[in-house]
Design brief:
- By secondary structure, the chain is α+β, with helices and mostly antiparallel strands.
- It has 4 helices and 7 strands.
- It has helices at 2-16, 21-29, 129-146, 152-170, and strands at residues 33-53, 57-77, 86-89, 92-97, 100-106, 113-114, 175-180.
- Strands 1, 2, 5 and 6 form a 4-stranded antiparallel β-sheet that branches.
- Strand 3 and strand 4 (92-97) form a beta hairpin.
- Helix 1 (2-16) runs antiparallel to helix 2 (21-29).
């Protein structure tokens, strides 16, 4: 809410000098990162640890199942706004905003919940804490790399556009055009990058 009030204040300052695009860009950039959407993603974490005799004969399997949640906040980094991204002509304003990106990604351990009905150890084959950590890291990588397929960009662009249009209309603009640059939502990571 504080960020929204700050943005409104900046936009009011912007209207006082509508013709100076450089000043407009400078004022909007001070709003920094605008997080407009928050998503909670449920993830089932599943893993199997197999015990083999001489790497050929399968003896048994230990299984692990847990429920987890990732919290993703997406928005626009307004610090990346450039002078040429703002065009003001009287009561008309055109903005080309930076691409939507993940502002914050968290995968909190306190939201992990092991399913004791499915999770079982086998004879001489136990799921260790290191194994569990590996399963959760694999799940986090999978979530991060799947975000681009979850319509997060579309939902965030829509919400950002609505919010900025409402703010700009209250400041006297009658024609508002908002577009977004294309970019990477979140960098993909591999097991090597997280030290697995």
């Amino acid at each position: 809410m504080k960020r929204l009030i700050y943005i409104v204040s900046l936009l009011i300052l912007v209207t006082a000098c509508k013709d100076d695009q450089g000043l407009v860009v400078g004022k909007i950039k001070k709003a920094s990162k605008l997080a407009t959407t928050e998503f909670t993603i449920d993830k089932i974490v599943y893993g199997v640890k197999r015990k083999r005799l001489l790497w050929v004969v399968k003896l048994n399997e230990a299984k692990f199942l847990a429920h987890s949640k990732a919290i993703v906040k997406a928005g626009v980094n307004l610090e990346k706004l450039r002078k040429e991204d703002v065009d003001i002509e009287g009561k008309s304003i055109s903005l080309k905003l930076p691409p939507v990106e993940v502002i914050n990604f968290s995968y909190p351990a306190e939201l992990f919940e092991m399913d004791t009905l499915v999770s079982t150890d086998a004879f001489l084959n136990r799921i260790s804490l290191n194994d569990q950590e590996q399963f959760f890291q694999d799940a986090e990588i999978d979530i991060r790399n799947s975000l681009k397929h979850m319509k997060i960009v579309e939902a965030t662009e829509k919400k950002t556009r609505l919010m900025l249009e409402n703010l700009l209309r209250t400041l006297g603009y009658q024609e508002i055009y908002i577009e977004f640059h294309q970019g990477e939502l979140i960098p993909e990571i591999t097991e090597e990058e997280v030290g697995l």
